[in-house]
Structure of Nodulation protein NfeD:
Amino acid sequence: MKMRVRTLVGLILLVSLLVLPSATVSADRTRVVYVATFEGVITSYSVDQFSRYIEIAESNHAEALIIELDTPGGRGDAMQEIIQRIKESRVPVIIYVYPPGAIAASAGTYIALGSHLIAMAPGTSIGACEPILGYSSNGSIVKAPEKIRNFYIAYIKSLAQASGRNETAAELFITEDLSLTPEEALKSHVIEVVADDLDDLLQKANGMTTKIPVAGRGKVTLNFTDVRVVRIGPSLKDEVVRYISDPTVAYVLINIGILGLIFGFLTPGWHVPETVGAILLVLGVIGLGYFGYNSAGLLLVGLSIIFFIAEALTPTFGLFTVAGVVTMVIGGILLFGGGNEYLIQSSTFSTLRIVIITIALLLGLFFAFGVAAIIRDRKKKAQTGREEMIGETGKVVQDLSPEGMVKIRGELWKAVSRNGETIKAGEVVEVVDMKGLTLIVEKVEEKEVP
């Protein structure tokens, strides 16, 4: 009987030890809010970055994920994939346009409207969503045709309608390229919160209900009381891709990479220029791949470099230089035209056009004068030394018996007669060979000495 009682007591203690710790952990468990940052152009890689942020928040059962956003926009297809991932998220995703001076333009506006809550910091802006197709061959920005505009108008209105936000303002973001300040956006019911910083956001959003349902949970009331904030830093890959996928940076990398390869071919044996050039060229092409580009434009950029090299090797009084400049400008512009729908600020493309024209002109001047001079200098160097001295004539100033001194081009040289014969001072000799700094000469008939 005593053994049964002891056994029963032991079982009760064992169960208590197993249950109490878990109850304690559950009681002590604090709510966590994850905060991530996204800045730069929205590309196909941005989808992976947003997905990674959401997966981390989901796996840790976060109260919410706040994404601090600063973007001029980007690719339309990437934007739609990001919005779809937000809809599938099992935690509320709050888009916070931050820091002051940040923008959520074009594709960034769509992503904000597709989120569970929108907040903006003072001094930021949202809107300007007109779709464009990049450049035309004459360098003008191509606005999307009516059917594409109508699609995006319907899409942004549906996002606003699903979240109970202002459909009229959403439509004006496209039709009038409207842009709003935080105060205007709040007054127009486009956003929900204007917050100075993260702490202010957590305080003001506490108790709010998400504007759209959270996957599997419906609309969620946010509880940010005594939450713990955990920041998700961008990975090294995120930082590298963000940098090289900027269209301006990618274009500059490609041009520097091509220059490096050319210098490598012109200066064989060093290997540094062509190695660095190849790396930069590959990074530039990868960056353009994320942003989207027209391969015909890339071919024209390569053709322009061939024209520049041809001008340096076979000077044509500027014909190949002009052809290279024109081809590079057209190629650079076509590089970002056709095949992709962009939701990005027009100013981004305007800046890019200036960069394309500037680089083309600088490369034209460089190849017309700089590289041509280098090649001429290399050819000149190939004629100096032994090759240049052989065949030259001069006068003996100190008897060669067989060694003595001769004067050639006004300079004194140590010389040795070829056959060991004695050659008197004042006689004319011709250089037939050279060993080190000693000339091998032979006597020739009297003739004018240069």
Remarks:
- The first strand starts at residue 32 and ends at 39.
- The two ends are 132 Å apart (CA to CA).
- The chain is about 50% helix and 20% strand.
